[in-house]
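Translate structure to sequence.
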C-alpha cells in the first residue's frame, strides 16, 4: 500500500501562483511515476502532469508553459508549481502514484 498526503491548495487571484506538494509513504518502489490530475464535479479526471523517478515529464497542453512538475526522490515527494493561474484552472487536484494510488484531493480555486 502507498499513502499520499497532499498540501498547498487554496484560493488565489487570476495571474497568481500556487505550489502543490504530495508526499508518498508506505511500499514505495525506487522506480515509479508520480504526478497530478484534476477533476471537476461530474467530469472525468484528467491529466495535469506526470514525472518519472528518472525525471522524465509529461504535461497536458493546458499546463505546459505555466506549470512545472518536480520531485524529490529522497523525500518521495512530488511538487506542482502553478503560475499564471486562470479561473479555468479551478478544480480539485489529485496526486497520483503509479500504478493506481490517489491522494484525497486538494481544492484549487482561481477567482477575484
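Result:
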Amino acid at each position: 500500500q502507498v499513502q499520499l498526503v497532499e498540501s498547498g491548495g487554496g484560493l488565489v487571484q487570476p495571474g497568481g501562483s500556487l505550489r502543490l506538494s504530495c508526499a508518498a509513504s508506505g511500499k514505495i518502489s525506487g522506480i515509479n511515476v508520480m504526478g497530478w490530475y484534476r477533476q471537476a464535479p461530474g467530469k472525468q479526471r484528467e491529466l495535469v502532469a506526470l514525472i518519472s523517478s528518472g525525471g522524465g515529464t509529461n504535461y497536458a497542453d493546458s499546463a505546459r508553459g505555466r506549470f512545472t512538475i518536480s520531485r524529490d526522490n529522497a523525500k518521495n515527494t512530488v511538487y506542482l508549481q502553478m503560475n499564471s493561474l486562470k479561473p479555468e484552472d479551478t478544480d480539485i487536484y489529485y496526486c497520483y502514484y503509479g500504478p493506481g494510488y490517489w491522494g484525497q484531493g486538494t481544492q484549487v480555486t482561481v477567482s477575484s
